[in-house]
Amino acid sequence: MSDTRGPAAEAVESHVRAFFEGHPVEVVDYDLGPGRREVVPDLRVLVVGPGPRNDGWAYVTAGCWAAMEKDGHGLEFVVTSHVRDRRFIELMVMIASYHCGGHRLDRRHGHEALEQLFDEAEMIPTDPFRASVA
């Protein structure tokens, strides 16, 4: 792992703020507890409110990439919803902790194949009643 933990999480936050310009963005430092904090030391969840780019909510991890980075590659996670709910923050923390705790969540065929499935199904990602496509 490189020495980019703090700066990497800050870079993710900067990217999210630029991408979602005009949206409110809240940084949530969730109390992971000592065991999980060691696994993902700089984890925070960015909560993006409705705005000009999207009328829903987005929850974005910042800190996973730095915790698991290998050869310049790593993952952050995003989930979208029509509502703001603390349970989504907790879900993001659980996903990040699980992934960084040794259970890598990389998909076998990559994210582009997953996005293609979503596009083919014309999936609306914020619809909680949508059918599964993966």
Describe this structure as you would to a colleague:
The chain has 134 residues and is an alpha+beta fold. It has one domain (5-103). Helix content is 39%, strand content 14%. It has five helices and four strands; from the N terminus they run αβαββαβαα. The chain has helices at 5-19, 34-39, 64-68, 86-100, 110-120, and strands at 25-28, 44-48, 57-62, 78-81. The protein has a four-stranded antiparallel beta sheet. Strand 2 and strand 3 (57-62) form a beta hairpin. The longest helix has 15 residues, at 5-19. It is globular and about 40 Å long. The termini are far apart. The mean pLDDT is 83.
Give me a quick take on this structure.
With 134 residues, the chain is α+β, with helices and mostly antiparallel strands. The protein contains 5 helices and 4 strands. The protein is globular, with a radius of gyration of 15 Å.
The end-to-end distance, rounded to whole angstroms, is 31 Å
Low-pLDDT segments, ≥5 res? none
Number of domains: 1
Strand order of the largest sheet: 1-2-3-4
Count of extended strands: 4
> Sheet with the most strands?
4 strands, antiparallel
Question: What is the N-to-C succession of helices and strands?
Answer: HEHEEHEHH
- Any idea what the radius of gyration is? 15 Å
Note the overall shape.
globular
Tally of helical runs: 5
Approximate strand percentage: 5-15%
* pLDDT averaged residue by residue: 83
- What class would the helix/strand composition place it in? alpha+beta
Helix share, percent: 25-40%
